[in-house]
Amino acid sequence: QSYIQLVHHLIEKCMLYHMGRDECIKALAQYALVQPIVTVTVWKELEKANKEFFISYFKYRTGRQTEGPVGKLCHKSANTVKLPRRHFAAKLSVVDLRSSPSH
Description:
mainly alpha, 0% strand
């Protein structure tokens, strides 16, 4: 499970740089040697567990204004304010792939 948590953390870092899923997959494969299937799986599980956050994140990435705490979080990261890890932890829950149905 610690490997999954590492990938989760790396995805959060990518999001601080406003990367989309595909950009994150490429970056983690190139710089952290994470297999793309692992990144895709963790990303999908995070999306399932945090629908509202990802809706706001995607709206922000497409240039739309967001409101509320997620919007403020996105705007803070856009201004390159270093966010404490606990700020994201409140929004993104840890994924346990062992309990997910296999496809």
